[in-house]
Design brief:
With about 270 residues, the chain is mostly helical. It contains 14 helices and no strands. The model has no long low-confidence stretch (mean pLDDT about 90).
Length: about 270
């Protein structure tokens, strides 16, 4: 077999696998959503519980993503620029959300912040309810999406090295000035990719949020939970429509990142 035929074969297998695994299911969801026309779709997407689920998903993303972005940049700098005992262990701890099942994460949050948990009774006396409310959902979302910014930023910091930062310090720049004017511009694309992954993970989280939310209709249902609720109640149009909204949100995030990348690179002098 020639090299060209071998490459074509590999390309065909890869594209076929991608189509069967990803494109065909997504296309089928879009088809099933709109096969009855636009009127049922509009009715489903404008239902009060659907609107609440949409805005709750946006709220969770708006809280969890900035928190994890700030934490991710800080922990990346600490792991890559710091030199202290236990650094390798800290790196392993950051990766825990990759290894632990989201359902276990939700259960652990209940054991810590539930009424019978370590802090649950103390929080309840202060009038703060974490589990079965939005704060618990925020904690679960932030936990499962924690590592992405850090893991996308660390390799960029490693490749960047410390020469430019040392030069800035030699010229009298403070630590904050060095970070803002030297380090952050150099790592910005690693941060951007991490933010995109964090956003996608926060939008699609189901397991941990399912455990801590209580799935209260119209109160603690974000879009993935709403999809399950509609499907279990035999409302196929509502489930498909909410799934399409989730897909469009993820697609909009990717498109915005690509447009930002192209615009910034086009303005960068060669």
């Amino acid at each position: 077999m020639s090299a060209r035929a071998w490459r074509l074969g590999l390309r065909t297998v890869a594209l076929g696998y991608l189509a069967l695994l990803l494109l065909a299911p997504v296309a089928m969801i879009f088809y099933r959503t709109f096969e009855g026309g636009l009127a049922p779709v509009w009715s489903a997407v404008s239902a009060p519980n659907a609107v609440h689920a949409f805005w709750l998903s946006i709220e969770l993303v708006a809280i969890a993503v900035p928190l994890n972005t700030l934490f991710g940049i800080g922990i990346a700098l600490l792991l890559e620029r710091g030199n202290f005992r236990g650094r390798a262990l800290l790196g392993l701890v950051i990766d825990l959300p990759f290894a632990i099942s989201p359902v276990v994460v939700g259960l652990a949050l209940i054991l810590v912040y539930g009424q019978a948990g370590w802090f649950g009774d103390w929080l309840a006396r202060g009038g703060i309810q974490v589990i079965f409310s939005v704060p618990g959902m925020v904690l679960a979302t932030a936990f499962v999406s924690l590592p992405f910014v850090a893991r996308e930023t660390i390799p960029v910091l490693r490749e960047l090295g410390t020469d430019a930062e040392q030069a800035a310090a030699t010229l009298g720049a403070s630590a904050w000035q060095t970070f803002w004017r030297v380090t952050l511009p150099a790592i910005r694309w690693g941060v951007v990719y991490g933010v995109v992954l964090t956003t996608a993970r926060a939008l699609g989280e189901f397991g941990a949020v399912s455990v801590v939310s209580g799935r209260i209709e119209g109160q603690t249902q974000q879009l993935p939970l709403y999809v399950q609720d509609r499907f279990e109640n035999f409302d196929a149009t509502g489930a498909y429509t909410a799934a399409v909204v989730l897909a469009l949100l993820a697609l909009a995030t990717l498109v915005a990142m690509n447009l930002l990348t192209r615009r910034t690179r086009s303005r960068t002098p060669v």
